[in-house]
Amino acid sequence: METTKTISDYFGSMVFDDRVMKAKLSAKVYSSLRRTIDEGAELDIRVANAVAEAMKDWAVSKGATHFTHWFQPLTGITAEKHDSFISPSPDGGVIMEFSGKELIKGEPDASSFPSGGLRATFEARGYTAWDPTSYAFIKGKTLCIPTAFCSYGGPALDKKTPLLRSMEVLSKEALRILKLFGNKTAKRVVSSVGPEQEYFLVTKEMFNKRPDLCFTGRTLFGAKPPKGQEMDDHYFGVIKPRVAAFMEELNEELWKLGILAKTEHNEVAPAQHELAPIYSTTNIATDHNQLTMEIMQKVAAKHGLVCLLHEKPFAGVNGSGKHNNWSIATDNGQNLLSPGETPYENAQFLLFLCAVIKAVDDYQDLLRLSVATAGNDHRLGANEAPPAVISIFLGDELNAVMEAIESGKPYAGAEKTQMKLGVDVLPKFNRDTTDRNRTSPFAFTGNKFEFRMLGSSNSIACANIMLNASVAESLRIYADRLEKAEDFETTLHEMIQKTFHDHKRIIFNGNGYDDAWIKEATEKRGLLNYRTTADCMPHLLDEKNVKMLTGLGVFSEEELRSRCDIMLENYCKSVVIEANTMVDMARTLIAPAVEAYASDVAKAAAAKKAVVPGLGCGYETELVKKLSSLTDSISARTDELAEAILKVAGAGDIIEESGLVRDILLPKMSELRIPCDQAEVITARSYWPFPTYGELLFGVK
Ligand code: ADP
Ligand code: MG
């Protein structure tokens, strides 16, 4: 009798996880590896050899033939170079080999990865180093070993290295605070993330007919369809069979990789969906999110679909983001962003809360730029995603507690005052699910913060590096003061009061989508409003930011400079590719289509007149006039855009170039789009050279 496989039978079956390690490694090797994973102890080469051998045998038994050091270069995607396990044996055959050295360190030819000048030509090679805290896994026929990627001089060339450093420093500073509150048992503090991933699905057939989707991941033209998202009938709606089949296979593939895919539903826009995993440690969550995005695209292809991860694939309907649910907890499971049972626990909670408030206010610019890409610029500031202005939503109850502390009045909920804070009894802050909450870029949701500005294609590493580092900086300042304090409680009380007083401008519990808020935020409160990547990215190198990030050891100054360059380069390159695609589509597809239609209409009019002399042909005449004037305008604006591309190419440096992209290129692109979209709605459908918005958005049945 055939037995059905349950999820628990195959969950993690492609992961060299703790269960496999325990089963396949000797007790001595296992405990030594565990020490490396848990405490960062150095790995002995003999242990590495034993682990490599076991890993290889396990991988080969699952059909793997190759291994790769899997890493996350600054391109934002993941990279891998495959080597096979084979090694010649003297008898003419091959044996499967994999050494500890190969496990620990790899040397991909790194010269083509962006380094922002970090890798001098004489040392064009970087190396990858195994990150034993993230389990190895099998993808296809390849054993993938999660690694960090560095240049020989030391500077990091990837996103994982600074992420691990930021987690380390957050743990260190948080432990100092916990110690002051009498916690003697916590050995580590871990930041966790649950990223909610949004995406669109379109059919492969239609995708292939649109050069804009193929080259840039988003549509650069397209008139508004008769129906968009106005009926609100897609959100949480019934999932169509083809999408359901995709989701089912996607879940299975993710589960095999030990990824805790948990919820899936339709999103606001037609053809838009979301997948959320159960949260995990930040670097694992980051690895898993990168894998999730990759597997989504692979599985979609198997179903004749294309998964669009771009932040704004379609104008006029919602774009896609990635909500970064973030919390910090001790290794024994105490969530430090959860109000506790005792006055001491609550005072501790309020201090951690203050650390986040201070961090978000002091480093608004870093948080903003950590999510800045050309794609995400289309979302932030439109009426769908949080604005480009950062603020924190606390909710009415918690806000009232903070206000009571600031004004020195006892909070109404406090029964007996055991601590000077006067808040020994805190209510459980249940998640506020109002609309106000959902419009906030950074909302407290009961026991975690939800950072909502990330774009759907962003690696979550950058946002979490900045979040971890800036909160670590607040905690460092607090710990410095509290460790020296003569009266702990009084100092604590004053610090919480002062933080709230100094930083309450960042707290906003109203509607973040409201234009009045942007005015208030920028004019009255002096909050930053960097609308584009070109505006915010250079602030990575502001003195206060460099001081904080280098002071904590999260980045070196050299790494920051290179990252700023690379991010701006990515921004410019993405937009220039879009502009080139527009010029190409306008000249070779749109203008000829409109022209062909106009010419056929003119021919039809002439033919009619030949049959019925004196016929007015008012319809045809008007239509041909309109179409001709649109092709004139398309032609002129295409030439202007092409000129703008040349201007950008002539920029002296990357700062100037990104300014030209923002000020000249993007506006010229918008101008060209207008006559093209106008032509689309008066050109017979059979002449239009690629699928329309209506067809794309409602094409997956
Ligand atoms: P929703 O936002 O749909 O209401 P939840 O708030 O329960 O759902 O969860 C959204 C995401 O937040 C999920 O990925 C979940 O695992 C994650 N999450 C829940 N609790 C925490 C936590 N303490 N720290 C980090 N992420 C969390
Ligand atoms: Mg959410």
Task: Write a brief caption for the model.
The chain is built from 24 helices and 17 strands. It is of the alpha+beta class.
Written overview of the protein:
It is a single chain. With 701 residues, this protein is of the alpha+beta class. The protein has 3 domains: 7-157, Ubiquitin-like (UB roll) (Roll), CATH 3.10.20; 166-555, Glutamine synthetase/guanido kinase, catalytic domain (Creatine Kinase, Chain A, domain 2, 2-Layer Sandwich), CATH 3.30.590; 570-697, Four Helix Bundle (Hemerythrin (Met), subunit A), CATH 1.20.120. It is globular and about 100 Å long. Strands 9, 10, 11, 12, 13, 14, 15, 16 and 17 form a 9-stranded mixed beta sheet that branches. Strands 1, 2, 5, 6, 7 and 8 form a 6-stranded mixed beta sheet that branches. α9 crosses α10 (282-302) and α12 (364-370) packs antiparallel against α16 (460-484). Helices cover 49% and strands 12% of the residues. The structure holds adenosine-5'-diphosphate (ADP) and magnesium ion (MG). Magnesium ion binds next to loops. Magnesium ion (MG) binds at residues 196, 323, 450.
Instruction: Report the sheet with the most strands, covering strand number, pairing sense and barrel closure.
Output: 9 strands, mixed
What is the class of the largest domain in the CATH system?
Alpha Beta
Number of strands: 17
* Amino-to-carboxy terminus distance: 36 Å
Indicate the percent of residues in helices: 40-55%
Q: Under CATH, the topology of the largest domain is which?
A: Creatine Kinase, Chain A, domain 2
Corresponding CATH superfamily of the largest domain: Glutamine synthetase/guanido kinase, catalytic domain
Which small molecules are bound? adenosine-5'-diphosphate, magnesium ion
**Rg from C-alpha positions?**
28 Å
Number of domains: 3
| Percent range for β-strand residues | 5-15%
- Total count of helical runs of at least 4 residues: 24
What is the typical, i.e. mean, pLDDT? 91
